[in-house]
Design brief:
mainly beta; 3 helices; Beta-galactosidase, Chain A, domain 5; 9-stranded antiparallel beta sheet
């Protein structure tokens, strides 16, 4: 049975640093406040919805049209994609991007870090419903940390660590992503570096393999899956006068996405005019980078935003 806010705060709150509160739609939300940054995480989907460095614009985009309801995904922030990427290959009735972002997660632990940092670890496991959709036993942990930035030493970087353990007795293939929506001033002026020379496919460009040349720019709908890349990406955002650095480990796929005009209008949980204010750089393992995990083993993928 889910714990009440009072129970969660009694067991896990860190006064002045981390507390549990009622968020949008009445869903339980974790509020992290450090001297240099703030973050919000929902237990619904273990979903990071906000990360704001002090005195700066939000780093994450969250749609004003998003649902905050049981059984529906949150649009924006960092949805968790697991155990399949996109539509299920065989069963159209199953939810896109898997079930992890729809589940109610539990709090496993919280911890103070050095120089004012903080970490919360959320946990979910297989159950009868997941086994009916995907016949594997698993433990999935999402560790969300606000930590000291390597350059400034201030606790103003966001680290997301998704760890998957195969709790069954057979190899477990899965896809995954930290589907990060970044807030930009105007995506039409933005560009993404770090993918030059990397092979990609794009559903809206015919699906044929292509090779990235120079930075990624946004001149229409962009939906690209880059493969065989473990590198860091930078989002250059002239409209807000900043760069967002997305570094990663345990990931060999990167997705760059913006829905543009028509697809934005087609999504009921996304504002028709919101598309210029966001760009996704997703840390992933998808398609030919599907992970196959032996029994008893753990795979960890991380994304760090600075």
């Amino acid at each position: 049975m889910p714990q009440s806010l009072e129970q969660l705060n009694t067991q896990f709150a860190l006064p002045g640093l981390l507390q549990f509160e009622s968020g949008q739609g009445g869903l339980t939300r974790v509020a992290i406040t450090t001297p240099h940054a703030e973050a919000q995480v929902y237990l619904h989907g273990a979903h990071v919805t906000s990360f704001v460095q002090s005195g700066k614009p939000p780093m994450l985009f969250l749609s004003g049209k998003s649902w905050f309801e049981d059984g529906k995904p949150i649009r924006g922030g960092v949805p968790l994609v697991f155990p399949w990427f996109g539509a299920h290959p065989d069963r159209a009735e199953l939810p896109a991007h898997g079930f992890a972002r729809l589940k109610a997660w539990e709090v496993e632990s919280v911890a103070r870090g050095p120089r004012g940092g903080v970490t919360i670890t959320l946990l979910t496991r297989h159950d009868d419903k997941t086994l009916a959709a995907w016949p594997h036993r698993f433990e999935l942990r999402h560790r969300v940390s606000v930590v000291p930035d390597e350059k400034t030493g201030e606790p103003a970087a966001l680290v997301m660590e998704l760890s998957t353990r195969n709790a069954g007795d057979q190899p477990m293939p899965f896809e995954e992503a930290l589907h990060t929506y970044l807030h930009v001033g105007d995506v039409r002026q933005a560009k993404v570096t770090g993918l030059d020379g990397v092979s990609y496919t794009a559903r809206n460009e015919g699906g044929a393999a292509r090779t990235q040349s120079g930075p990624v720019t946004f001149t229409g709908e962009t939906d690209r899956l880059y493969q065989g890349t473990a590198g860091t990406c930078e989002l250059d955002d002239p409209a807000l006068g900043r760069k967002i650095v997305v570094s990663k480990t345990g990931s060999l796929s990167t997705v760059v996405w913006n829905p543009w005009i028509d697809k934005a209008k087609a999504m009921v949980d996304f504002g028709d005019e919101e598309w210029p204010g966001m760009a996704c750089i997703e840390t992933a393992n998808a398609r030919e980078q599907t992970v196959t995990l032996p029994p008893g083993k753990t795979h960890t993928m991380t994304a760090t935003l600075r």
